[in-house]
Amino acid sequence: MLELLASWDRAEAKAAAGKRAIAAALEERLAPRIVAGRRGRVEVKGLAACEIAMRLGISQQRAGVLVGEGLLFNGVLADVGLALSDGLIDAGKAGSFASVLGDQETAVAFAVMDTVLPVAPGKTHAQLEKALQAELVRVDPLAAAKRFERAMRLRRLEQVQLRPDGMASI
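-> structure tokens emitted (170 positions)
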């Protein structure tokens, strides 16, 4: 049963890779845009994201992330896209690569990918995120201070959300 579960996990990863590839192709067909990191997410706003959101019944932000990740996996993060389509990593792990490396210089992204991607299948999502961040600092220590300043500017506290069970979340 574990092997059956693992094979479904690989199939799910292949489907996730396909979704991102098609989302990127739709974006390039409708209106080419530059992929930009935003609050730790790779997101592309545009006509494709709007249409994908309507068709799939998801938020425009989530659709924009699909497009952004697809563009990255067709470009600088092609090795991550291949690992996703081969079922070696899941969509969450691929998304971690995209959010950490999406706005990095190409040489830095390649250096981090070369080190972390081979060990990514054996790591949990949290472990992978830590490994990516640590390797990013090791590869490009001079830019770490700039990333810290940027992260400080993007931090925020949102309004308290009341939950149906009488609890609240921030």
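Residues 2-30 form the longest helix (29 residues).
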